[in-house]
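Sanity check. The docking grid for zinc ion depends on where the pocket ends up, so I'm generating a full predicted complex first rather than guessing from homology. Inputs follow.
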Amino acid sequence: MLVPVIGLEIHLQLKTKTKMFCACSAHEAAAPNANVCPVCTGQPGTLPVPNEQAIRFGIRMGLALNCAIAPHSKFDRKHYFYPDLPKAYQISQYDLPIAEKGFVMVGSHRIGITRAHLEEDAAKNLHGADGKTYVDFNRAGTPLIEMVTDPDFASPEEAKAFLQDLRLMARYLGVSDADMEKGQMRCDANVSLREVDDAGNIVGPKFHPKTEIKNINSFRNVERALQFELKRQAELWAAGSPPSVTTTRGWDDATQGTKEQRVKEAEGDYRYFPEPDIPALELAKIAEEERARMPELPAARRARFVDEYGLKADDAKQICEDPALSEFTEQVFSELGEWTKANGGATEKQKAANLVAGWLLSKLGGLLLERNVDVGSMKIDAENFAEFISLLASNKLSSSAGMTVLTEMLETGADPSDVMEAKRLGNIEDASVIAEIVDRVLGNNPEIVERYRAGKKELIQVLVGQVMKETEGAVDAKIARNMLLVKLES
Ligand SMILES: [Zn+2]
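Predicted complex below; grid placement will be based on this.
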């Protein structure tokens, strides 16, 4: 039987203000070659100065990947010749990467992290309509961290899930926006097949010549490219001629397939040697500082939201997909803590958790989407949202009136009790008041009452609707319905 052997190499653009070795802005510029200086255009006689923030971000990422951070590290020159590389070498790290030997859990499967190292990005070649190639140096020298995994992935789906986790991790750490479509996260995948017997023991060589798929630019394409390549290789094996040399292929969106590029250069071709212009890096102290500053990571937060606040696993996962939303949720629960304590025990807590998830994800989520506003910049603060939830949980506010209150809160940033008072939206719980309204509705709709009594039972809905309209949703629809039934059937 053939099983996949998949490893990934990921380049992540670090979100620093300036480039890796010069003071140029690392942000996107409006015009080509706006963010350039003698250092990042590779002029002779210039000296690179490492960006401390980039080193800290790299260490933070290494810690999140459970890596050992190297106490002593250094930069090296990696030589190759290409128009987008003005020095004819890239400053990278060779034998002393800042981080190595880590792991990440994807579900219950442990994926080893071989290493993570810092380097500078190359410039960008732009192929003009006039047939000429132009070079934009804005990207030249921007900081990257390259992360290499062990060949541990069992399937294309698992590789995709890992990348999605990695993106979320980078966002929680604040080291990168990790948007694949914008090229802030780029992925190469190494893939081959190996033969195993029924007991799972490897038959023949452990590794066979692999294909390296270059620069895949979306999560979906990672999965597709790996599926395509596994199928292609399986066909070669079936035909009795498995791949005999390691090759490089590119993913082609148009044909939905991989295409052979060039034969991979051997390591020796790069003629690595230590960068003589940058002193060795002593990282023990800043590694300790960064360790102390590590925020809670998405996987830990998801688990805690379930354990501590009683959220359902799916809801916790959805909330934690967005760092700002997860932060907001945290604050809401912290505000709600007092309310649940004052109102008793586990049942109230569970009720509040269900309400928070439902109102945050579907109702508020929908309103924000309509308005194209995100949680980070909306007008509702955690304190007001928690109060809103407590009003719903204690039945002072019905869910239909709740929608009106929430919309108003979003528009104006107002306190929910103020909105309820101004719009007279408090729940009507007094049975005699509800009975009065029900009588009025029945009195105003004699024709509907007559048709109902003649057998058109579904008309009850119209009457419930009338009561809700009359009270602007301040009556529980179930109570209204029951009371209508009593009066109509008597
Ligand atoms: Zn520069």
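Relevant for the grid: The mean pLDDT is 91.
Also worth noting: The chain has three domains: 2-292, 296-422, 431-489.
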